[in-house]
Design a protein that fits this description.
With 352 residues, the protein is of the alpha/beta class. It has 17 helices and nine strands. Helix 11 crosses helix 12 and helix 15 crosses helix 17. The chain starts with 19 loop residues before the first helix and ends with a strand.
Length: 352
């Protein structure tokens, strides 16, 4: 009779609350954790690990690395719940390690790479300078603005940025489409909408609605294939190249502004003013943003807030700071609702 060996079980993580001194030691080594996640993402370890437990030596063959250093990397990540080590020294997936797989529908692989790109390691040590000055340190570090640097000097990083933003937008688009009620809406406009994933999701859900995507020429040139010529939504979609900080030549019943009001205050005010000038009285404006005073995601959003300070001199908003800017632009603020664990939607109207 053949016996089947049971699947090895992961070693449970120690359940303890570290003392303040140990917790601070762990925090100041946060760069090691970020670097370990980046290394695993670049090596594609999560993609190499299937459903069966595997040794570091077996994984090392698949990812072209040395076995012992890979074991050390996996052991470090296991301390944070990214992969788990079994009693017999093999490694298995966890919920977080699966998010590093490229084929996972909720993959965070490119987000993990983007947040740990080489330029970030040069910028973070200058955070005290940014706090003192209140502005970006990027030009001083690299001799040019952040986006000029990305597209002129760091092509691989620009590619990672584009993939990360696409991943993030695609994952939140369905949540936005599920949240928004388009009753009475004939035309919806996605302002600064990137490749148009939110717009495409809305048009798919509402077959009688037309849509307009406005963003910079180089961005809309790579719009979601569903919206482009010969795409299934092309007949109901208009793609308009433009800069929403300069003008919004779009007539719509609803304007959506998602995750773009995190630049400097002047750009934010100009964008909101342009929406109010473009819209008819009574038009709906839905502003969707991460908030730094949103408890479920504060560790993430406050970190992104500091990164924005470093690279572009921007900021994530509190609920109060965002509503103040909307009111300054003349918008009438209505209901504020969570979109998901990271985003809030502010329903506004253009006054008569």
């Amino acid at each position: 009779m053949t016996t089947v060996s049971p699947t090895p079980t992961p070693i449970p993580s120690p359940q303890y609350t570290p003392q303040p001194a140990m917790r601070l030691r762990e925090l100041v080594f946060g760069a090691a954790c970020a670097a370990a996640v980046r290394a695993a993402a670049r090596l594609a370890v999560a993609d190499a690990l299937g459903e069966e437990p595997a040794t570091a030596a077996e994984l090392a063959v698949a990812v072209d690395s040395e076995p012992l250093p890979l074991q050390r990397l996996l052991r470090a990540l296991s301390c944070y719940g990214i992969f788990a080590e079994t009693e017999d020294g093999k490694f298995v997936h966890t919920e977080m390690s699966r998010l590093l797989r490229e084929d996972d529908p909720h993959s965070l692989r490119y987000i993990a790479l983007w947040c740990t790109e080489p330029w970030t390691w040069q910028a973070w040590p200058r955070l005290d300078d940014a706090v003192r000055s209140g502005g970006s340190v990027f030009h001083e570090l690299y001799g040019k603005g952040f986006f000029d640097y990305l597209h002129q000097d760091a092509h691989e990083s620009a590619h990672v940025f584009n993939r990360a933003m696409t991943t993030s937008s695609m994952q939140s688009a369905l949540d936005v489409a599920e949240l928004l009620d388009l009753t009475g809406i004939s035309v919806v406009a996605d302002i600064g909408g990137g490749q148009g994933h939110v717009l495409a999701s809305l048009l798919e859900k509402h077959p009688t609605v037309r849509g307009v995507l406005l963003d910079l020429p180089g961005v809309v040139a790579k719009a979601d294939p569903r919206l482009r010529e010969d795409g299934p939504l092309a007949a109901r979609a208009d793609i308009v190249p433009g800069d929403c900080r300069e003008a919004i030549p779009v007539d719509a019943d609803m304007y959506i502004i998602k995750n773009i009001l995190e630049w400097d205050d002047d750009s934010t005010r100009r964008t909101l003013r342009n929406v109010v000038e473009a819209a008819r009285p009574g038009s709906r404006v839905v502003i969707i943003e991460n908030l730094v005073d949103d408890t479920p995601s504060m560790k993430f959003t406050t970190a992104m807030d500091l990164l924005l300070l470093l690279n572009v001199g921007g900021a994530k908003h509190t609920k109060a700071s965002l509503t103040a800017r909307m009111e300054d632009a003349g918008l009438v603020i209505g209901e504020i609702r969570p979109v998901n664990a990271y985003l809030h939607a502010f329903e506004c109207t253009v006054p008569g």
